[in-house]
Specification:
The protein is mainly α. Helices cover 70% and strands 0% of the residues. The chain is globular and about 50 Å long.
Length: 129
């Protein structure tokens, strides 16, 4: 899943003229994870947008802004449980993400990027680290 979200995020970032949505998505995700934790991460949106409430216009207008931000948030969410300070220090994740990005930048193939990144991660976790 991380490879999929990473490739989708990278694709959105490459399409953006300014990277405000991607950076804001990263900041908002980190702040929300720090404040409420991963268990209650989606509780706030579900409370705000309950059935029967009219969706505000500014929320409806975010359709152009959010794709890049959402993809970056999903990447951060997938990497949230990586232990950077113990064990293998997240090396398999870091190497697989880097490889996924490099493959996608070279070939611009969603399928190749995901398959190569995911395969590299699985091989590293099972045979290297």
């Amino acid at each position: 899943m991380t490879a999929l979200f990473l490739v989708l995020a990278l694709d959105q970032i490459l399409k953006e003229k300014s990277h405000v949505s991607s950076v804001s998505g990263l900041v908002i995700t980190v702040v929300c994870l720090a404040l409420v934790g991963s268990t209650y991460f989606l509780l706030v949106p579900f409370r705000l947008f309950q059935r029967g409430n009219q969706t505000p216009r500014y929320i409806q207008g975010l359709g152009e802004f959010l794709p890049g931000a959402i993809m970056v948030m999903l990447v951060v969410y997938c990497l949230r449980n990586v232990t950077w300070l113990s064990g293998n220090h997240g090396w398999p994740d870091l190497i697989a993400c880097t490889l996924t990005i490099l493959v996608h930048l070279k070939w611009r193939s969603l399928f190749a990027s995901m398959i190569i990144g995911t395969t590299a991660y699985i091989l590293m976790v099972n045979f290297v680290f």
